[in-house]
Design a protein that fits this description.
The protein is an alpha/beta fold and 253 residues long. It has one domain: Rossmann fold (3-Layer(aba) Sandwich), CATH 3.40.50.720. Helices cover 41% and strands 14% of the residues. It contains eight helices and seven strands. Helix 1 crosses helix 8 and helix 4 runs parallel beside helix 5. The chain is globular and about 45 Å long. The C terminus is likely disordered. Pfam families: adh_short_C2.
């Protein structure tokens, strides 16, 4: 029996760590050919070693740059000839900052990566996708409800959901589906709470009904489902992966 994604080329941004890396490994195990990018090439190479038997194309890419995105996609097409699925995972996690102390530079960094980056990748890949292709975009529980002192981050994640729902309507008639995953408290190296450790981690563990942090692999399982045939009638959906989040003022992906 052939692997689920045999002969499928899947493009993943932010593949150097966390959810992006776990998803690359998951899809590799299901037979996919991978086009992986990240702003940190050393991290990207570490991911590639975990997918050693998989055909792959690697590139260090700042997704906010139209030219770098174009180069990456041209390189992918030059090597593999097609793109079948896209996982927009590259993003910058939040820092809690009161709005009056928020700099233009911080706004630009988050908006350009979390929102414009998805726009750049999506716009550039649409012409090369065919019926049956999918986009899966990473939002957050912070794209569903607000958090004090995280206005900029929430803006990008709310905006990404709106963008994705619009693209689901726009591309659906062409047989291309667009869905969103909204992770909650996930144990990743860039999670601000994980970096702080101690009480911050305990608050996250106690912030959902399962009483623990999620893993990147648990998100990757949902991403694979949303790309597969089992979800062929799922379009424009937001899948919350948060263990049953409780109302709280602490939010982090």
């Amino acid at each position: 029996m052939p692997a689920q994604f045999q002969d499928k080329v899947i493009l993943i941004t932010g593949a150097g760590s966390g959810i992006g890396r776990a998803t690359a490994v998951k899809l590799s195990s299901l037979g996919a050919t991978l086009a992986l990018c990240d702003i940190n090439y050393d991290n990207l190479e570490a991911t590639a070693k975990l997918c050693a038997s998989t055909p792959r194309h690697l590139d260090d890419v700042d997704v906010s740059s139209v030219q770098e995105v174009k180069k990456f996609i041209e390189g992918t097409l030059g090597k593999f000839g097609s793109i079948d699925h896209v996982f927009n995972c590259a993003g910058v996690n939040p820092t809690s900052i009161p709005l009056e102390e928020t700099t233009d530079e911080y706004w630009d960094k988050l908006v350009n990566t979390n929102l414009k980056g998805v726009f750049n990748i999506t716009r550039a890949t649409i012409p090369h996708l065919k019926r049956g292709s999918t986009f899966v975009n990473v939002s957050s529980i912070s794209g569903i409800r607000g958090s004090a002192q995280q206005a900029v981050y929430c803006t990008t994640k709310f905006g990404l959901i709106g963008f994705s729902k619009c693209m689901a309507l726009e591309l659906g008639p062409r047989g291309i589906r667009v869905n969103v995953v909204a992770p909650g408290y996930i144990d990743t190296p860039t999670n601000a709470g994980i970096v702080k450790g101690g009480e911050a981690v305990e608050r996250m563990r106690n912030g959902n009904a399962l009483g623990r942090l999620g893993t990147p692999e648990e998100v990757a399982d949902v991403v694979a489902f949303l790309m597969g045939e089992e979800s062929r009638y799922v379009n424009g959906s937001v899948v919350e992966i948060d263990g049953g989040i409780k109302m709280s003022s602490t939010t982090s992906k």
